[in-house]
Amino acid sequence: MLFLLASLFLLAVAVAALVFFPDLRQHLSQRLGASALQLQRQGTSTGEALRARTGAAGVLLGQEMGRWGGMAWRRRQLLALSLLALLLLPGAAVWWRLSHRVDSYDHTVAQDVDEHVAMLLQGEQLVPPPPLPPVLFSTPEVNEWHPLAQQASRQWELLDGDFRQRLLQVFRVMEARYGYTMVLVEGYRSPQRQAQLAALGPTVTLAVAGASYHQYGLAADCAFMRDGKVAISERDPWVARGYELYGEVAASLGMTWGGSWRRLRDLGHVELRRPGVLRAVGPGGGSAAEPS
Prior knowledge:
alpha+beta
């Protein structure tokens, strides 16, 4: 193992020298080309000539090694920095990856609940708002940001009871504190619909059937109502600001906001994570990365 590491290190040194010293690279190419041409012209008629050429090649190699050593010594500071970068960057990358958790990849981690919000959750049971006409979800704006939204389920009763109450509290706080009226775009999602959305590509969802909290009634996609229409476009400053507030309120209620994800940000998505729920997916059943 040590021999392999040493070999790789020497190879990295040689490659770095050729990369950072263009004069060396050009000179070496010219000398080797001239040597090859000279050997070709001399021919290989006798063993004695072969030995002579071998000796000449050895002398040439010695000269080249001397030149390399001299050039490397003259540029030793740059070479030392290059080698230091080759040694430190992989270790730094591994350290950074281990010390920075990406929320979307750890579906077993739940969010802390604000104490004041916890008291609200123990109080009255909120009642879901009446359903909206499906035609409101068939506009080009809605389908741009949430494909096939008209076919989505908005049945509050299919959501997990605890998650449903938390989401209703989010709706209440958003309207009472910030003046945003929220609307449920999609709640429970069947495995068949999850597979249908996954087939549309990674810009829609990274989760296959069974790998999303939607299948367990623990996730929802939401938007806002403005002037009698569903406002969902993240390019709209008013909507974008609403989503930021929505994420803050949802996090205070112990939920995970899709806007905090690093790969596929989903500003309208919130979920209530529970350890072991997505682990129920069997081998080959899909990844829980950024369940949406």
